[in-house]
Design a protein that fits this description.
- With about 475 residues, the chain is mainly beta.
- Helices cover about 0% and strands about 55% of the residues.
- The chain is built from no helices and 37 strands.
- It has strands spanning about 15, 25-30, 35, 40-45, 55-65, 65-75, 90-95, 110-115, 125-130, 135-140, 145-150, 160-165, 165-175, 185-195, 210-215, 220-225, 230-235, 240-245, 250-255, 260-265, 280-285, 295-305, 305-315, 315-325, 330-335, 340-345, 355-360, 365-370, 370, 380, 390-395, 400-405, 410-415, 425-430, 430-435, 445-450, 455-465.
- The strands form 10 sheets. Strands 29-27-26-23-24-30 form a 6-stranded mixed beta sheet, with no helix packed on it.
- β2 (about 25-30) and β3 form a beta hairpin.
- The protein is elongated and about 130 Å long.
């Protein structure tokens, strides 16, 4: 019956009864009918209202001229002849994403999560249908959940239809309603919030602060600010706004050509901009038992500047570990107890200078940084990028072998040191060599290369196995 419903299936069979003298026959039992001898008759047992619960039919065919001449027959009903399609599609539409381009609405987008069920392991194709046009957007095999998109909100909704590739009539679909656009008619960008101590760094009561404000719309024009501050400006042009109050501000900005198009803005005043002081504190983990050595980590919290440069003071050298943001704790791992780690922390923020020491750090302790007085005369290893050197060390990072390449006809001595200054490997070579690192654990190391003329170059490498 061209449906996916097996309850409306029907079936039939043909019967032909013969004897030696002709005449007619009748049947009794589950099927009661009759016909002429020798004539094919089509039987329709599915006309029985109990067909679905009746797996077989038994009836007796009797010669109409001789009741003692009969035969009993049983016919089994066939299985359902439906090729039932169990395919289903469930969808979940994500929220609108303004793509950080407010107030531009043309790129507002959304995503769709699709769950495919009932594919029975078959290959399928997912179609996007708009105005009668089908566009394939995904092919796969079997059931699962899939993320689609992004789709433009401004283009509206569409139909998603999944089709079994080998059974073109097995389909399931669901309409996707677009969440629309989410960019407003105005958008505001604020940045470069700076405190001004008004020349009185020891008196925070007269501090002012300022910020850059840019207002955007789609057609230009002018805007007006009201609320805790009053200001006017042009769209797309950056304006410096100054606030001489330590209180937070709340303002509204409206389009002069459309007063109903407005946005509210809240800004929190920065901390008073008196003298900035670099402070650092640290906490180390307990010494964990490793396979070979006990190791620990250090977490450093820095207050004051936005960024700091950190060096590790290791006996006769300084190792530059890099420049770090102070927004989050700074962590160093794989430290070995007894290494006598001393960290030099120097501000790289000109508005907040300073330098502190974390001296002789060990595992399972915490402490505060000490203000550093005087600079060390030790050589910094990290400056190998800035100092001309004919020695090359590669690859970096390295796994099994590190290559050291010097000048022709020159002899060298190379030493591999850990961050405690301990020499792990020493080798002498002429022009170039390759050093095996199988016995050295993963971590940060220093290669010191000294030429026959006494020139020394330092190279930081990462062994990563």
């Amino acid at each position: 019956k061209d449906t996916d419903d097996p309850s409306d299936d029907y079936w039939y069979f043909d019967i032909r009864v013969t004897n030696s003298s002709g005449g007619f026959w009748i049947s009794t039992g589950d099927i009661e009918t009759g016909a002429q001898m020798g004539v094919v008759k089509t039987m329709w047992p599915s006309e029985d209202p109990n067909y679905l619960s009746h797996p077989s039919y038994t009836f007796t065919v009797v010669d109409g001229n001789d009741p003692n001449c009969f035969q009993t027959i049983t016919v089994d009903a066939p299985e359902s002849c439906d090729k039932s399609c169990k395919l289903k599609i469930n969808t979940s539409v994500g929220p609108c994403n303004d793509e950080d381009t407010r107030p531009l609405v043309s790129d507002d987008s959304f995503t769709v999560d699709v769950e495919i069920l009932g594919s029975e392991g078959q290959a399928w194709t997912l179609l996007k249908k708009v105005n009668g046009i089908e566009t394939p957007i995904l092919t796969d095999t079997g059931d699962g959940v899939f993320s689609l998109g992004s789709f433009l909100g401004i283009e509206g909704g569409f139909l998603l239809e999944v089709v079994i590739d080998d059974v073109i009539d097995c389909r399931a679909s669901e309409y996707i309603e677009s969440p629309g656009t989410c960019s407003g008619c105005l958008s505001v960008e604020t940045k470069n919030i700076v405190c001004d101590d008004k020349g009185t760094p020891d008196d925070p009561t007269d501090d002012c602060w300022s910020f850059d404000l840019t207002v955007f719309n789609t057609i230009g024009g002018t805007w007006t600010m009201t609320g805790d501050l009053s200001a006017v400006g042009k769209f797309f042009e950056t304006q410096r706004i100054t606030v001489c109050s330590q209180e937070s501000i709340n303002v509204s900005i409206s389009d002069d050509n459309n007063i109903e198009c407005l946005v509210t803005l809240s800004l929190t005043a920065p901390e008073a901009c008196g003298p900035c002081t670099l402070k650092a504190s640290y906490k180390t983990t307990k010494c964990d038992d490793g396979e070979v050595l006990k190791k620990f980590s250090i977490s450093i919290d820095v207050e004051g500047p936005d960024c700091v440069k950190i060096q590790l003071d290791q006996k006769f050298v300084l190792i530059d570990l890099g420049i770090f943001s102070t927004d989050d704790p700074i962590v160093f791992s794989n430290l070995i107890p007894g290494g006598n780690y001393t960290y030099i922390i120097t501000s790289c923020d000109e508005n907040c200078p300073g330098e502190v020491l974390l001296k002789n750090v060990s595992c399972d302790e915490e402490g505060e940084g000490e203000k550093r007085s005087g600079a060390s005369g030790k050589r910094s290893l990290i400056h190998s990028e800035k100092v001309e050197s004919s020695v090359k060390v590669f690859p970096n990072p390295v796994t099994q072998f590190v290559n050291i390449q010097g000048e022709p006809t020159i002899s060298y001595t190379a030493r591999i040191l850990d961050l405690t200054g301990k020499i792990l490997v020493t080798t002498s070579f002429r022009e170039e060599t390759s050093v095996q690192l199988n016995m050295i654990q993963t971590g940060l190391y220093i290669i010191q290369v000294e030429s026959m003329h006494g020139d020394i170059s330092m190279h930081k490498i990462l062994i990563n196995k």
